[in-house]
Amino acid sequence: MWEKFKKQFQQDGEIYLRIKAHPNSPKTDINGVLEDETIKINISAVAEKNKANIELIKFLAKEFGVDKNSVTIISGKADRVKLIKITMNQE
After folding, report:
1. Total structural domains in the chain?
2. Each residue's pLDDT tens digit, 24-83
3. Phi and psi (nearest 5°) for 55?
4. What is the domain range of residue 52?
5. Which has fewest Cβ within 10 Å: 5, 27, 40, 65?
6. CATH number at residue 32
7. What whole-number distance in Å separates Cα of residue 23 and Cα of residue 47?
8. Per-residue CA distances from 74 to 10, 34, 66 (Å)
9. Is 41 exposed, middle or buried (0-12, 13-18, 19+ CB in 10 A)?
10. pLDDT given for residue 90 in this prediction
11. Longest dimension (CA), the chain
12. DSSP 3-state assignment of 71?
């Protein structure tokens, strides 16, 4: 299912993802996709002082092969459910 999102990103040059974050996990990884296509992601960082958001951005940038500046939290910075925009690197 994760490959579907990567393929769409490659085709469109950008993608919006709905993420349900689970901070304070043993490691940062994908934990599944819900019926509404919300992606559950475990985050190894704690949910304080923006640490979990920074870890999530780093993880998504690596997964999609973009700079961290290409990953933006549109909404939900202080919530577990977030809307994320990822764009292709500008050259």
Report:
1. 1
2. 999 999 999 999 999 999 999 999 999 999 999 999 999 999 999 999 999 999 999 999
3. -65, -40
4. 2-87
5. 27
6. 3.30.1200.10
7. 6
8. 20, 20, 17
9. buried
10. 61
11. 36
12. strand
